[in-house]
Design a protein that fits this description.
- It contains two helices and six strands.
- With 119 residues, the chain is α/β, with parallel strands linked by helices.
- The protein is globular and about 40 Å long.
Amino acid sequence: MSLPRPGRYKAKAVGVEISPKLVASASAEIERAGLTTQARVMQGDVLQADLTGADVVTMYLETELNAKLRPRLEKFLKPGARVVTHDYPVPGWKATRVEKVEGRVMHTIYLYEIQPAKQ
């Protein structure tokens, strides 16, 4: 895994992972890359996580779970925050950008930006 250089991006990333083993691995990689002030991964249920204050949320969840998580993202993330999903879109949202990434298999990355609440 290749992480950006510290300070290059002005974003705060918060990850939620149910597997303690994956949390430990990701946390070690974040520390090794010197990104502990910009990124963190916490162990828990993503449907219960408090995402207040996150600027960027990355997800690799199936479309059905993305749909369940969408109301929480809309509630906790401020306008301009970004949500990046890997392979599975967020139903009801229009992606700002969609990228195809070729590796052993083709992947799709979706970028969403949280819009101001409609009055």
